Every structure is written in C-alpha cells, then in structure tokens.
User: What shape does this take?
Amino acid sequence: MSLRIGLFYPNTPSMHALAPDVVQQSPDLLDMQSHVACAQTCEAIGLDYLFMAEVWGPYGPRASESGIVDPTLLSPILAATLIPVTTKIRLITTIHTSWFHPLAVARMGAALDSLSSGRWGLNIVTGAGFADQLVGAESEELDHDARYDRAAEVVEIMTQAWSRGEIDFEGDHFRISGRIVGPRTVQQPRPLLVSAGASEAGRRFAGRYADTVFMPGRTPLEECRQRIADIRRIAREAGRPDDAVKLQMHASILVRETEDEAQEASAALGESVDPEIVVEYLNSIRRNISTYDDIYAQLGELELRKIGKVSGAREIHAGADRAADEIERLATEFGCDGLALTFPVWQPEEIRRFGELVLPRLAKRGLWTHPENRGWSW
Assistant: This one.
C-alpha cells in the first residue's frame, strides 16, 4: 500500500514554527494567489490531501503581536476557494462539534463535497479551538467525555442528512426529526472522517467513526502502537473491517540535498524561535488539547527552541536520504499509513523540493506511488 502524504495546510501565517522571522519569509496569507500556488504545487508533486486545522483564539499576546496565528482563515471557507483551482487533491477541514450545530455542518459539508466532486473530508475536534474564553459557558457546559458523546450524535445526524436527507434522531444532546434540503454527498454514506483523540473517550469515538486517526509526531513508539491497536480493536467490535482506521502522523519537513545544508537551515530556524511565544503555546495547548498535553507532560524540560521549531510535529530536518529513512521508519516501525507534513516556511519551492528529493526515494523503496497511478484513491 502506498503512503498517503498530505500538507498540514498553512491557514495561519506560521502554522507550527513559533518564529516571527518565519512569518516574514512565508507568503502573504491574505493573498489568494499564495494559496493557489501552494495548493497547485501540492497537487502537482502528488500529495494526497490538504489538511486544514482550526484556531479560534491566539496562544497569547506575544504570539498575536508577532502574527503567528493571527490572522487565521476559517478552514471550510479556505477549502471552498481551493476547489476550483485543484482537480484531484482531497480537502480536509476542521469543525469543532462542541459548538457547531450538526445541521449547519451537514449542509456546509454536503456543498463542499458536491462542488469538489467528492474530495472533501471532515476533521472532527471536540474541544473549543483555543476559544474557551470567547464562547464561555457554551464551551464549558460539557465535560471531556460528554463532548465525545455529542460528537458521536453529530456524526449520526450528519450521516442521515448526507445519505438520505431525512433525519429521525433522538439522543442526549439532539432531538431532530424532518427533512433537510440537499445536496446529498458524493461520498456515501458519508465523507471521510478524521479524528485525533488520545483519551479513552477519544479512542472509542475514533474506533466507531474515524477513517483516519491523526497523531502528533512526538507520540512515542510504544504509545503509538498501543493507541492505534486499541482504536482498531474498538473498530472491530463495532463491526468495522480491521483496516478501517488509517494512521497519519504529523512531521515537520525541512529537506535539502545534503545533511549539512539541512542542519544549517534547521539551526537558523531554531535561532529565530521566540521563547516567549513557545511558553504561550505550551500553556495554551496544554489547557486546550489533551492529545498534546500528555506528550508535553512526558517530555519534561525540553529546550524551548527545539519545541518552537516544530510545535507538536516530528522533526525531519535532514538531507534527502535521511529524510527518506525517517519516513520509512515511521511506515515500518510505527505502522503509519501516511504523513501530514508541515513546511516551516510554506513557499512552493520548499514543497517542490520535497517532491523532487524525497518522493522519488520513497517510490524506489516501494513506500509511495504517485496518486495518478492509483486513481487518486484514498
């Protein structure tokens, strides 16, 4: 099976490198042509998908002043703008189910899926997207496990809407009966669903519903194996096939022809990291996303600059050969079915360089096939 490799899409000025210099080096986030060039480059080199996360509030004042995640583009809107400038690549957007109504998501998703000819996917997040203070009581009324219970009801309701348009549902969080206007989704009975839950409740949800599980690149080997094995056990118990749930990991890619060139560029990136922003990031993400909280709690006192280079991603800053080695290890040892890549500076030439230097090496090792040669199938 070929690895599915996608871009962790830059819908903020600097998605994972906590460095103001990176903001200055990256394309203009509010220039549509920046996104056209980025998306078309990804499709041209053979990436499978664009994965769009969602941020609703800043990490803190320093990060906001530096423009790290402010402004941020709403992922479904951004995806809609990229549908007409791409033809094959999948567009995965994020929705926070704890405070979006399922009928609104169902209609929005059906439009995105239909207009893209079945290329849309949904990443479900149960938290508040760093927006707890913004949404207040609406976010706080549900505890952690209840948010996943609500997310499960959201999926059930949306699946009814997408597959037949007639909804008849009664649960703890929603009671909905009636017909919703179309369109129905091209993908049936529902589009691709992505989840990233690490808790027991999150694993239960992923096993029952997710097609793809997203894990931070910092997840240790044994924990990764145990978590995906548990999720797949839950999937089997729910009557799903063994291979129903795929594993995608998050990696920061900075690749050059030689190891020395890559290490020089990575060191320069580390020097440009703002430690104060890293502290804001750590404080904020540990409050908001338990998936990362567990990892950072285990890491202890890591150097702030090392975290600031890649945030929660696995660092693959290497020459072309070692970059291919690291990806092969993720596939063979970690059992990854694919990778979501972050490029610290999201210039098209950085993406093209990965396509020219690394993808042919992965193909030669039998790890990757260009999606044109496999029908752009997921």
In short: The mean pLDDT is 90. The CA atoms of residues 68 and 86 lie 27 Å apart.
